[in-house]
Amino acid sequence: MSDFARLRQGMVDCQIRVADVTDPRVIAAFSETPRENYMPAGRRDVAYLDSRAPLGGGREMLDPMTLAKLVQLADPREGETALVVGAGLGYAAAVLSRLVAVVTAVESDPALAAAARANLAGDGVTLVEGPLPAGAPNGAPYDLIFIDGAVEDGLSALAGQLKPHGRIIAPAGRTRPTKATIFRRNGAELGAAPAFDAHAAVLPGFAAEDVFAL
Description:
This protein has 214 residues and is an alpha/beta fold. It has a domain at 62-197: Vaccinia Virus protein VP39 (Rossmann fold). 26% of the residues lie in helices and 26% in strands. The chain is built from six helices and nine strands. The chain has helices spanning 3-16, 24-32, 64-74, 91-97, 110-119, 156-159, and strands at residues 53-56, 59-61, 81-85, 102-107, 126-129, 142-147, 162-172, 179-186, 189-197. Strands 5-4-3-6-7-8-9 form a seven-stranded mixed sheet. Strands 1-2 form a two-stranded antiparallel sheet. α5 (110-119) links the parallel β4 and β5 (126-129). The longest helix is centred in the first third of the chain and has 14 residues, at 3-16. One of its GO terms (molecular function) is protein-L-isoaspartate (D-aspartate) O-methyltransferase activity. This is Protein-L-isoaspartate O-methyltransferase.
């Protein structure tokens, strides 16, 4: 077993399992996905620390525990089609590619998009470069939209790309910490059910506009 494999197993045992992540498929996906291959340059050696990793421009890679809890909340199923919004360097998309049938990922930052496309070359993920709130309509409709970062507003276009009973998973809210939230389509409406605290940086395009009252 390589050093990274031992560290990955330690991450699963000491960070993920102890956070009430019990779904065996989710645990297997994290056990099989080499997080070191999706880390920022120069940070492979700290791939399995219990911390977020900076991606530049205010962007962050979620810590493993938070990501695993979000993936379990998403309840990804074999045969489903998923969209990852805010691909970053591709780690969340790689994990989900082991859990669903088809994964599309969208990234707005050109440098991150290029790196994610290279990182995900062996994972069967389609990488789309473009504004995050616009999603990836060419691959719609999706069973699951997984937002790999926080949102305060701006889900309307993504909601339109869901299947009738589809779901969006995201750390959401205007207060800190944000709440891991599952959004479900109910006709034309989008209902929200908060689940647990989830620290995450707000993704580009999803910040709420400041409103000043006179």
